[in-house]
Structure to design on (181 residues):
């Protein structure tokens, strides 16, 4: 047994991913169409119970995206297509994300000022490294998520003033060519 690995952990991870994948779609393999939820009911259930909201989708992509990029992308796309109102939360998500990054930059700046005056402040140096790790993880997660959902990449590329004017359902229709890279 390898230290840090629980027996059956990889199998558990695979089963959890497959459960999330099944939740993302209203289609049940092998079932009759009448035995499955309608797309509208499926989307309403996902949104009402917040089963696959944006923070969860970001986490899912960060955890599973590097191991199984294609299936994870499909899972994210299924969840975003099923939940029509989820696109309204992207502006909030990005605003929240940028506020966290801004706060972390301020922490880095203040830590750097103290470190430059007092070279013996090891705890601030460690805190600075933790902040940098957090920022790196957040940016990599956002990059991975934008890679899975191309219209979000367009959102990132648009000027800040225009982001609040973008409506993702219309943007999704205009960007079909981009999503088929």
């Amino acid at each position: 047994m390898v230290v840090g690995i629980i027996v059956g952990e990889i199998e558990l991870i695979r089963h959890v991913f497959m459960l999330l994948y099944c939740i993302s779609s209203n289609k049940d393999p092998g079932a009759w169409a009448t035995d499955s939820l309608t797309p509208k009911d499926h989307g309403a259930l996902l949104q009402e119970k917040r089963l696959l909201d944006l923070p969860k989708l970001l986490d899912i992509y960060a955890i599973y995206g590097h191991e199984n990029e294609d299936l994870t992308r499909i899972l994210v796309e299924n969840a975003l297509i099923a939940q029509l109102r989820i696109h309204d939360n992207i502006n909030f998500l990005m605003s929240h994300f940028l506020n966290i990054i801004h706060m972390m930059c301020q922490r880095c700046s203040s830590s750097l000022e103290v470190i430059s005056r007092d070279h013996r402040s090891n705890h601030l140096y460690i805190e600075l490294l933790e902040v940098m790790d957090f920022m790196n993880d957040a940016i990599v997660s956002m990059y991975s998520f934008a890679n899975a959902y191309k219209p979000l990449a367009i959102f990132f590329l648009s000027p800040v003033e225009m982001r609040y004017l973008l409506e993702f359902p219309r943007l999704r229709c205009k960007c079909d060519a981009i999503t088929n890279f």
In short: The longest helix spans residues 89-117. The CA atoms of residues 78 and 158 lie 24 Å apart.
